[in-house]
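Hi all, posting the design record for the shared folder.

TITLE: backbone redesign
STEP: 1 of 1
STRUCTURE INPUT:
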């Protein structure tokens, strides 16, 4: 096994990832991209052929770009231009993803989860990783009091033999019935009533069927979700009042619901796969216990409305990936790991509330309640609020991590900041990760470092030789652990950064960690210390905080 530098010596045992779904695979790729050995196990004997997650939103593609998987995923998926909402077969409003201007991916993708997994798994193999199928976690000893103690995992193989693994860290990405969560004794707390849905995949024929839009169709008898995979294939999700969950729902059920609820006539062919599931809302009491972490469905499950579940898990993986990688390699302070739980918990709570509300809105049956909902959506469409608030909300580009500074963002505050074009601490910023942060990329946006903090220096109206000396001095002070990029020549950022000098400390996942209006080496250095950036040479194993 390859050894990598660690601030306390050499790391010999890998990070153990339990669960080889999209979330576990993305996290494993994050580790391998940073040169950190990882072991991925999954109790299933092989990859799943059927799945519920079918939409990848823009923010997930931005984060998948970090591991060089976004391009392959785009090539494999069907572009989704937007989302439309119908009531009693009449259009209420729509969200147009193509109007988003601050992302390389102004669209969603419809792609089955097994194909998403295939793309990421291929990237894992390219990076030198592999998945061990048929290996189950059956024991986990973890010390939450002494975080220097490594967790000990007991694994059982298909042939019945067991082994113990002393891992540096453990990630539980093993789904809603997470063995990691259960062995750690972390409660899975629920809110809201369960809602039963039948889902099915298959071909459909009809005139003017939407082939690039995700549809939500509401009626007094229930809701219908309708997503195109391309090539005449579709996913249907219909609310049902009750069902024997041991039986697969038949084609006739979906056809009847299409006839009752869809705005356009479509004739279903033979469905490849059908099932039922309960749209539960659960969030783990803790996302971290010592050196063990939870991500994806192991940490939270939501209603399927808005197709947010897998996308939220991918954000978990990216959030923890750069932090844990930086800590292991000694380029960020270990205390940044403490921000994983509050940041991702706040994000999960917001998604849970939003998807729960959308599910409830789709199941209204009283005429007065339906009228209020429909009029609100029409008003939001007419005023432009539906587009300006809905696009970043649906795409998950509106995630804010200011909760780490003790201030939890709200949808209203986020919308007000969006209207003003204001950049705030915690916001996602339209810069994207790459292996280097130097030079022009040919992209519309500057680069930030993949594995450590980057300081974006913005001169405003005062870009002169004195400004360049200030940038050079900062580079001398903080190199090599922190990259410094002068972005004053990038007009795409002018609307966000204004006319006055500003230093923007950006995390590897593209979120703003700090803003410094003085933009001096001394004040920027203090800001870097506060957010946990370290000035160090990873090859030397020496780490010192910026002073």
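Okay, here is what came back for every position:
SEQUENCE:
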């Amino acid at each position: 096994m390859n050894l990598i530098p660690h601030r306390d010596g050499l790391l010999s045992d890998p990070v153990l990832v339990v669960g080889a779904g999209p979330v576990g695979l993305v996290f494993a790729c994050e580790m391998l991209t940073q040169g950190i050995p990882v072991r991925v196990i999954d109790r299933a004997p092989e990859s799943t052929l059927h799945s519920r997650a079918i939409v990848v939103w823009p923010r997930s593609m931005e984060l998948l770009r970090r591991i060089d998987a976004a391009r392959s995923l785009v090539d494999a998926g069907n572009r989704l231009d937007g989302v439309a909402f119908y009531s009693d077969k009449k259009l209420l409003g729509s969200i147009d993803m193509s109007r988003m201007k601050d992302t390389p991916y102004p669209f969603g993708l419809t792609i089955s989860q097994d194909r998403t997994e295939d793309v990421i798994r291929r990237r894992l193999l390219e990076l030198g990783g592999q998945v061990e199928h048929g290996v189950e976690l059956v024991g986990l000893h973890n010390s939450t009091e002494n975080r220097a103690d490594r967790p000990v995992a007991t694994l059982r193989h298909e042939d019945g033999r067991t082994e113990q693994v002393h891992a540096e860290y453990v990630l539980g990405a093993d789904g809603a019935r997470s063995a990691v969560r259960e062995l750690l004794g972390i409660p899975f707390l629920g809110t809201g009533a369960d809602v039963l849905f039948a889902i099915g995949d298959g071909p459909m024929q009809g005139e003017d069927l939407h082939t690039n839009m995700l549809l939500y169709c509401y009626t007094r008898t229930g809701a219908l979700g309708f997503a195109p995979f391309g090539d005449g294939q579709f996913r249907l999700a219909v609310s049902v009042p009750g069902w024997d969950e041991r039986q697969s729902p038949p084609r006739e059920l979906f056809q009847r619901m299409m006839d009752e609820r869809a705005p356009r006539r479509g004739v279903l062919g033979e469905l490849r796969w059908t099932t039922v599931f309960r749209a539960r809302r659960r969030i783990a009491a803790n996302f971290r216990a010592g050196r063990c972490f939870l991500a994806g469905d192991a940490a939270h499950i939501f209603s399927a409305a808005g197709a947010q579940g897998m996308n939220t898990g991918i954000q978990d993986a990216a959030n923890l990936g750069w932090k844990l990688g930086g800590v292991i390699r000694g380029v960020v302070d270990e205390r940044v790991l403490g921000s994983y739980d509050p940041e991702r918990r706040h994000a999960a709570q917001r998604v849970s509330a939003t998807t729960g509300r959308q599910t409830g809105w789709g199941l209204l049956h009283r005429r007065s309640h339906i009228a209020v909902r429909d009029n609100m959506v029409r008003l939001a469409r007419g005023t432009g609020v539906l587009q300006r608030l809905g696009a970043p909300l649906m795409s998950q580009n509106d995630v804010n991590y200011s909760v780490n500074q003790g201030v939890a963002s709200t949808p209203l505050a986020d919308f007000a900041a969006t209207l003003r074009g204001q950049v705030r601490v915690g916001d996602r910023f339209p810069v994207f990760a790459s292996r280097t942060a130097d030079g022009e990329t040919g992209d519309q946006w500057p680069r930030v470092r993949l594995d450590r903090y980057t300081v974006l220096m913005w001169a405003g109206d005062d870009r002169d030789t004195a400004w360049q000396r200030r940038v050079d001095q900062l580079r001398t002070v903080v190199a090599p652990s922190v990259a410094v990029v002068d972005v004053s020549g990038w007009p795409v950022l002018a609307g966000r950064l204004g006319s006055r000098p500003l230093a923007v400390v950006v995390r590897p996942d593209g979120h703003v960690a700090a803003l410094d209006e003085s933009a001096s080496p001394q004040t920027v250095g203090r800001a870097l210390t506060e957010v946990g950036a370290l000035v160090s040479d990873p090859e030397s194993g020496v780490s010192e905080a910026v002073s």
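COMMENT: The first strand starts at residue 4 and ends at 6.
Let me know if anyone wants the other runs.
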